[in-house]
Automatic annotation (TrEMBL):
It is found in: Membrane. One of its GO terms (biological process) is adenylate cyclase-activating G protein-coupled receptor signaling pathway. The chain crosses the membrane at residues 20-41, 61-83, 110-135. One of its GO terms (cellular component) is plasma membrane. InterPro entries: GPCR_2-like_7TM, GPCR_2_secretin-like. Its main location: membrane. It is a multi-pass membrane protein. This is AGRG4 protein.
Length: 153
């Protein structure tokens, strides 16, 4: 959906409908944040599968993942809309971006907080999960090598 909204965004912007542009900007923002959130959930699943291998039963795991994957971005979008719906719009209508024909977030502060900071938090969490998984794999490898040396002796 992110790709579809991105590819149709500039075409739908050419209709010069402010409401349509706001909807496209909201959808683009939502699906971008959803993609980041699902990326984070994949790293959590990776952690559970490789580090917490046994005794990891989570009741209604898929439902919880879906609520987080689709709900957290919805909360962010709702907060931005509650603050001011005019944060979304067509960049060509502003004097600071006279040649853009794309519906997106118009305020730099909102962009840096709701996209860049969001991505940075996801990236930090993914990096932490990745390092934890690597350390776990390394410790398993070390234990296996020690055990095989013991049996060879």
């Amino acid at each position: 959906m992110l790709n579809m909204v991105f590819l149709t965004n500039s075409w739908l912007t050419s209709f010069n409908q402010p409401g349509l542009c706001i909807i496209m900007a909201i959808l683009l923002h939502y699906f971008l944040l959803a993609a980041f959130t699902w990326m984070c959930l994949e790293s959590v699943h990776f952690y559970l599968a490789l580090v917490k291998v046994f005794n990891v039963y989570v009741p209604k795991y898929i439902l919880k993942c879906c609520v987080a994957g689709w709900g957290i971005p919805a909360v962010v979008i709702t907060l931005v809309l509650i603050i001011n719906k005019d944060f979304y719009g067509n960049g060509s209508l502003s004097e600071s971006h006279p040649y853009t024909n794309f519906c997106w977030i118009q305020d730099n502060t909102v962009f840096y907080i709701s996209v860049v900071a969001y991505f940075f938090l996801i990236f930090l969490m993914n990096t932490a999960m990745f390092i934890t998984v690597l350390l776990q794999i390394h410790s398993v490898k070390t234990r296996t090598q020690k055990t095989s040396r013991f049996w060879k002796q």
